[in-house]
Write the structure tokens for this entry.
Amino acid sequence: MSLLAEVFGTKTRTVVAAAAATAAALTLAACSSGTSDEEPSAEESSTETMEEASYGDLTVQLSWIKNEEFAGEFFADSKGYYTEAGFDTVNLVPGPSTGVAELVSGQVDVALSDAVSIGSGVGNEGAPLKIIGATYQKNPFTVLSLADGGNIATVDDMVGKRIGVQDSNTALFTALLAANGLTSDDVEIVPVQYDPAPLVAGEVDGFIAYLTNESLILEHEGYDTVNLPFADNGLPFVAETFTVTDDAIANDREMLKAFLVAEIKGWTDAVLDPAEGSRLAVEEYGVDLGLNPEVSALGSTTQSEELVVSDETAENGLFTISEALQAETITSLEGAGITVTAEDLFDMSLLAEVYEMYPELVDYAG
């Protein structure tokens, strides 16, 4: 069994039955509670009042296992940022999961997911959810190939090639083709699972993967890899999104803002010290997973340098999703057959209030 099969199993990174799960959860969802009569303005709030507040326990659904993808959460927990923000405990529930069903049914308070899964739940199933920020500013999907194999460095290089595509990623790959004027007739789509063994064996020329996972694993195993990132080829969308219910936005705004403050601090530390973020994953939070330290370190550094930070976050703070990036994300979803508006999918007002209250967090340095 390859390292990927041992560590990553059969990760579901996109919709993966989200529609069915969401429909079931919607049936079980309770009615929304009443809204509060009055809410303090951003100007009336202060760091002191946020730190003195008590929000009890919070449950966060992670999209995947407790690896370096969640280094910011590990920092926030281990350095006491959650406690400072007013939480007794923050329970990080490992995936894989899109978080849609858990949010709608009330099992969790926040889910780390992606725009495709949440967009599908909102647009196709009417799930009452919103994205309030995004850790990954860039789509992490890639067409992975080997330099001495398919060597797919450009979109045109895919023409006539065999591309290994997981069932859950078929819509995304079709959208990638469409965004570049191609169709499924231009390539041979080969059904695969998440272990890139077919790519190594030469059974496919390209393989749908994550820039921070399978690509790095094969590179670590000595293969000369080539990546065709979706984000650079017509499909930019946000991932590792902070998603909550509409009801929480209406009734638990101060709690959500406190959570965002802790997350900003945690992820700033993760960006500044990716090696420590990897160590936390390997030696503490994911100690039972047998994570490879070298691969984890590569993943932590790659996400910090290429996915989490951008010109937009440098200017306006981590997790920011600009109107332009929202529009690009919506266009990407349309290509995947998901019809939803930016207003339906995003609510950036809480993050804006956080940075208005605490402008120093824009360039927080730990």
Remarks:
- The chain has a mean pLDDT of 86.
